[in-house]
Q: What sequence folds into this?
């Protein structure tokens, strides 16, 4: 981390990141828009973590996974079933085991990671479109299981989960800024963790598996094992995002893991850029901004529910934006950003 | 004697076969074997006093009630036909251009709604579902003949404008077609159905349906086990078989088909031989979209068309093509048969111990089996490895 | 090198300024609140399965504000264009936003938070759908100072199992809507044994529960329950599990809009032509577009209502319909539509509550919300629907029949009036019971409060004859 060795692009990026981090840390204390703090930014942090799990798999494992929302939902459902307690006036679905919330939290994260490892093992010999397909079946199985197996869920989902937070976190409903800092902290930790994992021997050999699976196999590396572990790690990240989500919204339902939500997460990751981890939060932020401001905006002509493009709704707009992004820059916004510096480098003759 | 002894696997051979890697395969085969034994022999109808156990199903075993079994088999075959019609279009595009056309479902939906509008106008109907008595064969064919070319042209536009210049970038094409699918699906909701009766909800993607011609509305006596089967469903089977035969003839007996097969095998070589591979791509894409339209007209007559089915049929096509094996028509047929049989048999022969179990879990069971099949056969049933 | 350094710092500075500007703008977008203004939000769906309900819901609620709170519609052909000048006894009321849900929980989460936290609404009128209402009920429990009046949601849980003190529902749930239809099947059609096919989904279970409770209460027996999962492409295997026509007297259907005609077609192809006297459906047989695919085959079949009585000719109903037409006639919203009627009732209840609480919100408003409401189609109790101990309406229900009109069109008409239906079905359902599902409710013979009291409605007039 020697600043002298940083490229120009890295210098700019790290400056921006430092400023952004300062702004984010002081945001709630500064009293700026609580709506932004408690909705847009928290959503950005947690969906960014989920998108980061997807981008980790795609950038470093060469696997596009559509199962990340399913794992996100599974973590929320496990936590909901274990932490909530039932009875009249309580939440009406789920097992309501009423465990200690800290234990429930640990079991949710460990359980989801375990499910991820199993799923990864089953899918470890599939690549490309076949891997996408098998993760899509996981997503479908999760959607139907969460909805139809009413002992553990049901279609309205499990509610009120944010009333059962661990003691060392306290009441998140009375102190919403705590969730803001927890989410921000987790996002930073996740980012640093991914950057670290990628540099470990496992991470390096994973990238080798991504590029040349046959050669790596002939060199004696267990290719399926690498893929399984990578999927398990991504499941761990998705579990963190899922837990943050249920603490934020209180409810987890099959609607959180169905096909449109899976596509939304993919859109977030693609808009941000599938090749760089930073793209996860950039893409999540862009998507959530659009969702919040465009879908009901009446200021911008032709957009917003009053007079939408060709009569369609927010989906047409997001579809067009997504199409433009993929056509112009398949590496998303981070790819565009990188190209700005490439062209600068070229025009300045590599100075 | 020694030849026979040499055939019997040794302990090491058996041991090396039963590794962890084989677990999904063993699991899948084991489940299917157990399911077959269960369906044929173990299942029982509920006892007279209403008691149920794990062996109770709605119909009982195939041995006990062959007529019901035959009906379910026919249901599976006919559903597989419909799946095959739609999925073969997807397989054609996927196999030749390695393009995962995620807009396949949206085009299916658009075809269904256009055909509905045409059939309603032809009959002068004010947006009310038609009775089979009001529909003759021409009233059913004309909507198909109008919807299919429209969809083929739209498909051609999509291919030329958005997919031609990034040929080979599979992920990018998949993402582009996802975006197109989202846009088309949203526009369908905004503009269809247009022909609705007075006071009814216009637009919004409500459910509407097509109607089969009147002569299909009868039962055919199959003379086997006293089974009477719907002629309309047999028509679906006939159309599916015709599509299969037609595709086979086209791909294996015509010049264009030869070019397509050559392109599937080795695109660069085919192009180097001077064959206009771009034109072949365009034709194949159009035919693929046309098949989606045909499938939509068939299934909208059989059932209905409504928003949300685009995602359903895209998923169906993906499952069929990938389980069957990338890009081969035989693979699409095999995938369709496997998917339809598992889905239908799960929905009828899973235990019925009570309202809470288990036929409503047929979707979960189907997809678990599909995941297992994909796991031990990553390239699909009839796909080529690598 | 130096120029690059400067450029790097420049772009960073520009970005920092941009971030601060966005923060300031975002902060300022929070509307400055006047101390006395009451802020309300109307939560509805603008996409998804019930996206068409947007204008209907907003029109219904705003018609109530126009009639009773001096509201002025901005555009009488388009309710969502807004309404101004709403005031209750001098307290100004402002509609801060319309929620744009899509029937699923995740969007309900973001929209509810946007309306109640960003826009700072004190009261929510809504939501539209069942699953969204379960989330809103849980949210209400966590935010006791806000008040929530459900729009049209048919789920049982919000008022039976969750029942927060700040949540009100002035209409029946999905089970209440079907009360009476089972008794008509038993008495008028002579059904004794029936099978039921239900969407394997929360609203399906709730709607089917109403049919099962009612039919079993009068002595009928449900011999088989079939549950096709959502997004079933081929209904044939599920229809085959229904007993053949010889083994049951009839079939109940709680299959939703996208699957209704598919399921019926599959039935025809398995068992032959549909007989109207052997089929009873829930609201999806008669509304939301499915009536045009179902009705032609099933003219004469009875169908479950939604708490409104289309075509009812009582003075109160006519007065209510006139109010809707007066304010939003050009928008062509149908007053008998459940979306319009239920949001209208919610809006009017809110106005009465604010009048009684003197413009205060929070606990004062919750204490002041009316315990009985003069709803358009209410007849019993002097023309009032009343709230029970969990703030759930006890409401008159109307059951319908599909008929062919003289002009050739087909549609539902009111044929039965069921007085005073409560959510517990006369004590059959208790808050400690698990929510409606596949095995709940069981089939029990019991005397419901309206048993033997269902009056025949002919040409919009409630006769004194009961169904025997």
A:
């Amino acid at each position: 981390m020697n600043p002298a060795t940083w490229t120009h692009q890295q210098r700019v990026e790290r400056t921006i990141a430092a400023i952004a981090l300062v702004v984010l840390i002081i945001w709630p204390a500064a009293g700026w828009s609580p709506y932004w703090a408690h909705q847009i930014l928290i959503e950005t942090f947690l969906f960014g973590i989920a998108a980061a799990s997807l981008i980790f798999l795609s950038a470093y494992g060469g696997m596009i996974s559509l199962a990340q929302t399913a794992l996100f939902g599974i973590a929320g459902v496990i936590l909901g079933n274990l932490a909530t307690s039932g009875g009249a006036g309580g939440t009406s679905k789920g097992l309501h085991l009423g465990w200690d919330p800290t234990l429930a939290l640990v079991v949710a994260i460990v359980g989801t990671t375990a499910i991820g490892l199993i799923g990864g093992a089953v899918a470890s010999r599939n690549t490309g479109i076949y891997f996408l397909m098998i993760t899509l079946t996981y997503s479908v199985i999760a959607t139907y299981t969460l909805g139809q197996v009413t002992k553990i869920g049901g279609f309205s989902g499990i509610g009120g989960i944010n009333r059962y937070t661990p003691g060392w976190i306290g009441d998140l409903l009375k102190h919403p800024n705590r969730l803001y800092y927890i989410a921000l902290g987790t996002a930073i930790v996740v980012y640093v963790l991914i950057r670290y994992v990628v540099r470990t021997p496992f991470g390096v050999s994973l990238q080798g598996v991504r590029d040349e699976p046959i050669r790596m196999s002939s060199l004696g590396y267990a290719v399926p094992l690498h893929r399984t572990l990578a999927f398990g790690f991504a499941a761990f990240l998705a579990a963190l995002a899922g837990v943050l989500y249920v603490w934020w919204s209180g409810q987890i339902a099959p609607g959180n893991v169905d096909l449109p939500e899976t596509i939304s997460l993919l859109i977030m990751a693609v808009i941000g850029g599938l090749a760089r981890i930073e793209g996860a939060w950039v893409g999540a932020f862009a998507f959530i901004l659009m969702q919040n401001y465009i879908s009901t905006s009446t200021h911008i002509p032709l957009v917003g529910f009053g007079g939408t493009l060709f009569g369609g709704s927010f989906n047409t707009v997001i579809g067009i934006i997504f199409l433009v992004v993929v056509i112009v820059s398949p590496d998303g916004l981070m790819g565009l950003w990188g190209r700005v510096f490439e062209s600068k480098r070229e025009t300045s003759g590599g100075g | 004697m020694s030849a026979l002894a040499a055939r019997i696997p040794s302990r090491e051979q058996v041991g090396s076969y039963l590794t962890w890697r084989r677990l999904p395969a063993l699991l899948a085969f084991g489940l299917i074997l157990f399911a077959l034994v269960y369906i044929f022999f173990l299942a029982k109808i509920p006892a007279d006093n209403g008691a149920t156990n794990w062996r109770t199903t709605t119909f009982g075993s195939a041995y006990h009630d062959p007529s019901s079994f035959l009906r379910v088999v026919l249901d599976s075959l006919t559903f597989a036909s419909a799946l095959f019609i739609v999925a073969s279009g997807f397989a054609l595009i996927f196999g030749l251009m390695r393009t995962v056309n995620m807009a396949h479902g949206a085009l299916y939906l658009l075809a269904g709604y256009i055909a509905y509008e045409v059939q309603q106008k032809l009959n002068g109907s004010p947006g009310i579902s038609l009775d089979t008595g009001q529909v003759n064969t021409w009233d059913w064919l004309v909507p198909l003949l109008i919807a299919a070319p429209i969809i083929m042209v739209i498909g051609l536009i999509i291919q030329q404008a958005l997919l031609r210049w990034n040929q080979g970038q599979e992920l990018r094409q998949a993402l582009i077609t996802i975006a197109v699918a989202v846009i088309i699906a949203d526009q369908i909701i905004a503009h269809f159905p247009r022909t609705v009766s007075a006071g009814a909800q216009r637009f919004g993607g409500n459910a509407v349906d097509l109607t089969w011609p009147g002569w299909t509305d009868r039962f055919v006596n199959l003379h086997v086990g006293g089974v009477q089967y719907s002629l309309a469903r047999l028509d679906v089977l006939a159309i599916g078989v015709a599509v299969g035969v037609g595709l086979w003839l086209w791909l294996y007996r015509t010049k264009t088909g030869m070019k397509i097969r050559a392109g599937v095998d080795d695109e660069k070589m085919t192009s180097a031989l001077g064959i206009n591979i771009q034109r072949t791509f365009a034709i194949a894409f159009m035919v693929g979209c046309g098949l989606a339209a045909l499938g939509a007209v068939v299934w909208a007559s059989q059932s209905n068309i409504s928003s949300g089915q685009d995602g359903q049929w895209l998923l169906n096509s993906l499952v069929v093509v990938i389980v069957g094996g990338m890009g081969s028509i035989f693979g699409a047929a095999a995938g369709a048969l496997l998917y339809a049989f598992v889905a239908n048999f799960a929905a009828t022969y899973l235990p019925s111990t009570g309202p809470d179990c288990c036929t409503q879990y047929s979707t979960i069971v189907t997809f678990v089996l599909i995941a297992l099949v994909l796991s031990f056969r990553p390239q699909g049933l009839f796909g080529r490895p690598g | 090198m130096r120029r690059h350094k400067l450029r790097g710092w420049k772009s960073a500075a520009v970005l920092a300024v941009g971030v601060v500007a966005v923060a300031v703008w975002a902060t300022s977008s929070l509307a400055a609140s006047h101390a006395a203004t009451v802020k309300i939000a109307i939560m509805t769906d603008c996409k998804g399965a019930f996206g068409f309900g947007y204008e209907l819901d907003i029109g219904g609620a705003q018609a109530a504000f126009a009639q009773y709170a001096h509201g002025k519609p901005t555009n009488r052909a388009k309710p969502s264009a807004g309404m101004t000048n709403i005031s209750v006894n001098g307290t100004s009321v402002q509609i801060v936003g319309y929620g744009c849900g899509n029937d699923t929980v995740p969007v309900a989460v973001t929209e509810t938070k946007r309306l109640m936290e960003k826009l700072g609404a004190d009261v929510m009128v809504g939501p539209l759908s069942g699953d969204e209402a379960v989330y809103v009920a849980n949210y209400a429990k966590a935010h006791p100072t806000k008040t929530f009046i459900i729009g049209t949601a048919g789920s049982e849980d919000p008022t039976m199992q969750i029942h927060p003190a700040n949540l009100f529902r002035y209409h029946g749930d999905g089970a209440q809507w079907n009360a009476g239809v089972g008794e008509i099947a038993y008495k008028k059609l002579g059904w004794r044994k029936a099978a039921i096919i239900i969407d394997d989904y929360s609203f399906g279970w709730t709607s089917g529960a109403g049919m099962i409770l009612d039919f079993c209460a009068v002595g009928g027996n449900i011999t088989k329950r079939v549950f096709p999962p959502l997004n079933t492409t081929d209904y044939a295997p599920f229809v085959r599990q229904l007993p053949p026509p010889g083994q049951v007297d009839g079939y109940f259907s709680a299959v939703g809009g996208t699957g209704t005609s598919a399921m019926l077609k599959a039935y025809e192809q398995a068992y032959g032509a549909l007989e109207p006297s052997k089929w009873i459906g829930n609201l999806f047989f008669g509304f939301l577009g499915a009536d045009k695919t179902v009705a032609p085959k099933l003219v004469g079949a009875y169908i479950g209502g939604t708490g409104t009585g289309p075509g009812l000719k009582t003075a109160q109903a006519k007065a209510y319909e006139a109010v809707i037409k007066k304010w939003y006639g050009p928008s062509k919203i149908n007053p008998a539509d459940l979306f319009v009627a239920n949001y209208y009732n919610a809006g009017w209840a809110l106005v009465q509550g604010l009048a009684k609480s003197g413009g205060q919100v929070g606990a004062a408003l919750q204490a002041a919300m009316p315990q009985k409401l003069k709803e358009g189609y209410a007849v019993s109790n002097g023309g009032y629907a009343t709230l029970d101990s969990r703030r759930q309406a006890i409401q008159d229900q109307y059951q319908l029949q599909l008929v062919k009109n003289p002009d050739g069109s087909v549609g539902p008409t009111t044929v039965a009036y069921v007085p005073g239906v409560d959510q517990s079905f006369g004590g059959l359902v208790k808050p400690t019971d698990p929510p409606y599902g596949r095995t709940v409710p069981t089939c029990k013979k019991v005397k419901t409060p309206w048993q033997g009291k269902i009056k025949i409605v002919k040409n919009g007039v409630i006769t004194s004859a009961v169904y025997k």
Summary: The longest helix of chain A spans residues 34-61.
